[in-house]
Amino acid sequence: MRPLYRLQQVWQGVVARPLSPAALHDIARHLSPAQMALFGRFSRSDQHHSYLVMATLRDAGCVEADLLTAALLHDVGKTKVRFGLLARSWAAVVSKVSPARAAVWGQLTWAQARPWQRPLIAYNQHPLWSAELAAEANTSPRALSLIRRHQEKLPHPQTAEDHLLRQLQWADDQH
Hints:
- It is a single chain.
- It contains 10 helices and no strands.
- The chain has helices at about 5-15, 20-30, 35-40, 45-60, 65-75, 85-95, 100-105, 120-135, 140-150, 160-175.
- It is globular, with a radius of gyration of 16 Å.
């Protein structure tokens, strides 16, 4: 757990401004119109996060289209439910401090969960939700797999896709 990092995330969420026209143009070069519509559902801070993940990969030399698409859409499932920064921070902290408890709470149904457990449902299930939404926007199968797996623990990459996933996780962890 990196407390300073989490505080920076909260602050960035508070002060987030709209992306520049140049950044939006850059994003549009990597996404279809349907995918851009998904990207538009993000909050300003989530747009910044996803753009920075993509830019970090590209700056590291990545040109793999599926990976860049996955970077831009990996968190779009979070738009299914809206939580404030405190609830999202709560979910991140519980997931780091007590991963077993977070996993159990994250599998509850909305009706079963108490209000303070619901952010864990979104935190744990947003990769699947993200992939489902991206599939509706005709995203490629490999990008969908990267999106769906972006929180998967990956001790030893075995396949080419695993290596792409490791890159996505590395860039996501930077922001």
